[in-house]
Fold this protein.
Amino acid sequence: MVIYKKEIAKLIGKATNIDVNDLEAFIEIPNNRENGDYAFPCFKLAKTLRKAPQIIAEEIKNKIEIDIKIFEKIEVIGGYINFFVNNETLTQEVLQEIDKEKENYGAEGNKNKNIIVEYSSPNIAKEFHIGHLRTTVIGAAFYNIYKFLGYHTIGINHLGDYGTQFGKMIEGYKRWGEEYNLEQNPIEELTKMYVRINDLCKKDETVLEQCRENFKKLEDGDEYCVNLWNKFKELSLKEFYKTYDLLGIKFDALTGEAFYQDKTQEVIDILEKNGKLVESQGAKIVDLEDKGMPPCIICKSNGSSIYATRDLAAIIYRARTYDFDKCIYIVAYEQNLHFKQIFEVAKYLDLDKKYTDGLIHIAYGMTRMPNGRMSTREGNVIKVNDLLNEAIQRVLDIINEKNPEMEDKEENAKKIGIGAVIYNNLCTTLIKDQIFDWDTVLNFNGETGPYIQYIYVRTKSVLEKAGYIPEYKEIDIRKLQDEASIKVIKILYQFNQILNQVLEKRETSILARYLIELAQNYSNFYNENKIIGENKEIQDARIYLTYAVGNVLKIGAGLLGIKMPNKM
């Protein structure tokens, strides 16, 4: 397809002898389309060319020779050069590309880079609650988009399967294990045990010391502690995968903190060799005062490792195993300092600069209850499975009320309910905190996941009613030059750019809002144009545009992790 920004940059570059890549970054899309499809702000060149923006704009315009098959016209308004694309060429480009690529439309990308996305990472023996849901669906969306765009993508679930909390769980099991039915409700029972032992630790410092000693034994390979830890892990994973199956999420690697425990000594050795380890109150640390950060603890005073050490070991392992260009961590903003510290310390591990430059933390806001923060220790959590099943049931209730004879209503309710929950987590700026509210999450009106699904089902209904999808070569693109059709075409054209913006700006809401905009504009097209029943040429053109919209809605929603229902 024609890349209009590149074409504009070439024209301006030829007129000014300024680097095309620099110019392309300045090109804007006006909010008011009366000001063109693209605009170049000449204010950016005023300092370089030492002229007023208006004069620069006029001079550049007079030097430009446009290809009318690409641009119908250019205008100068103030200090802007405004470009108006040829709508017939645009329509041809978009529909021809959709005909060629079909479910891969928009997938142009980079096939030579290795991208690691670490996400979900729940803690073993704890409830998988809605706080974990965000990292899971955000990470899956980034994983899907990178993979769709041709990157070699590795999804890693870095389980929280090591640390002092397991010393607590072992102590709790020693004291009260017979009281809990771990086979029937493993996570629920383990959570109760964890809350109970945590309360006891608060009251009795000697119990907390016993818990720390249990973890040290686990690190040293004590048979009883290791066997118990393996049992907790096996039971937890079995429950976690019930959630992952509901969400349709898979991983390429399941390597938690414990996997890196025997690799932490190398981290310590390299830091010592490079003179970066110092002792502080019996612990070993890396001093980061000159970086404006508190010290990064590498070893506790009792010799136990800490999760920072395991994260550093993971970086070394991933560099060697995957040769990554980017290693992306999807973790809440509460861990901002942690990642700043380990990214800084990683520079002392004798790694190629490519790897340390490729470490990225995508932070997101916390999910909070209306009455405050959730905490496993306090037993104040909402389980993801409960949320998803509640969403499915509420949709099913609506179907039974309004369309009880619907085919496959249970499967459709599952897609709609889970889609609503996923979209709710991805549609707002990631860094913002979310207050969990059932009514908001399960609101199926307005700018929601179910609305996108509804418009998709409408496109399917139109195609079913027509009984055919015409061949692209049979389409007369001149029949799609009305305002409503062109708006839809222009949105379809942006799809690949939108996906790249998600990655560049690290923001899933860009794609979520794009899908809403496409759905809304198709709805407007549908309301303003009679699709079936006009003359055959008009009908074919409008049916094909309907097919194109449904195709892109399904691709885009799928990248967010949302499946499309057959009926609504």
